[in-house]
Automatic annotation (TrEMBL):
This is PF03932 family protein CutC. Its main location: cytoplasm. Gene3D superfamilies: Copper homeostasis (CutC) domain (3.20.20.380). Coiled coil: none annotated. Keywords: Cytoplasm. It comes from Streptomyces evansiae. PANTHER family: COPPER HOMEOSTASIS PROTEIN CUTC, COPPER HOMEOSTASIS PROTEIN CUTC HOMOLOG. InterPro entries: CutC-like, CutC-like_dom_sf.
Length: 262
């Protein structure tokens, strides 16, 4: 962590108020709320946002109307614009949004529209670009566009399958987007945190998830094409041990980075 850089923060992706309480009680600074973690995350309902906001930890809400790619048509952008207003009215501190063109560049018009909806709902709303940046044709060049758009932060793995493999590009994004907080996310493990902080990121983001146990039912019947087994046909919950381990690794790495030498 460089001189003058603020204390790095820990963000945990959660899908419920119970997950938000686990994250809060084991060291998270904020949470990102979504549904469908197994699909990469989808927009939660207004009622779910309200219940998680009541936990008290600052809540960022993912606004993504469907799984799949990040190329959205006019109807989808209109829907997500309404979702942005809804989740902020329900207690979100900010939103996590994004859109790309078919050529893999940032859809500046769509992103600006979503940003404007957030700031109209709450002038202090934080606006984060989500991991659409990691499948952009030029992730670093995309990051360089964000200061002019007035976005708060960007969530990224550095364009790699996992953030621990994208260190060089993460550092390049930090340099390319002054004033935008670069948050490392995507396959982050607590052991990766020292190297991620050394790359200059402002925060780390983990899902810290584990599969919930299968409960009830006399026999398992698949309900979707991806339901491979009874053990996999379940939902994810927040793992307290992983959150606590990440908090400890983050604090230790930050302390080491600012400690004076011998």
């Amino acid at each position: 962590m460089s001189a003058g850089q603020s204390r790095p923060t820990l963000e945990i992706a959660v899908t419920s108020a119970a997950g938000a309480r686990v994250a809060r009680d084991h060291g998270a600074d904020r949470v990102e709320l979504c549904t469908g973690l197994e699909l990469g995350g989808l927009t939660p309902s207004a009622a779910l946002v309200e219940s998680v906001a009541a936990v008290g930890t600052p809540v960022q809400v993912l606004v993504r109307c469907r799984p799949g790619d990040f190329v959205h048509d006019a109807e989808e952008i209109a829907l997500m614009t309404a979702e942005v207003r809804s989740v902020i009215a329900s207690g979100a501190r900010g939103v996590v949004i994004g859109a790309l063109t078919a050529e893999g560049t940032l859809d500046v018009e769509a992103v600006a529209r979503l940003r404007d909806a957030a700031r109209e709902a709450d002038p202090a709303a934080e606006v984060t670009l989500h991991r659409a940046i990691d499948v952009a044709a030029d992730p670093v060049g995309t990051a360089a566009q964000l200061p002019a758009l007035g976005l708060t932060r960007v969530l990224t793995s550095g364009g790699a399958p996992a953030a621990g493999q994208g260190l060089d590009r993460l550092a390049a994004m930090v340099a390319a987007a002054p004033g935008v907080r670069v948050m490392a996310g995507g396959g982050v493990r607590p052991a990766d945190i020292p190297a991620l902080l050394a790359a200059g990121v402002d925060a780390v983001h983990l899902s810290a998830k584990r599969r919930a146990p299968v409960r009830g039912g006399a026999a398992w019947v698949p309900l979707g094409v991806s339901s491979a087994s009874a053990e996999q046909d379940t939902h994810f919950v927040t793992d307290a041990g992983v959150v606590a381990e990440a908090r400890g690794a983050l604090d230790l790495a930050a302390e080491t980075a600012v400690s004076p030498g011998p």
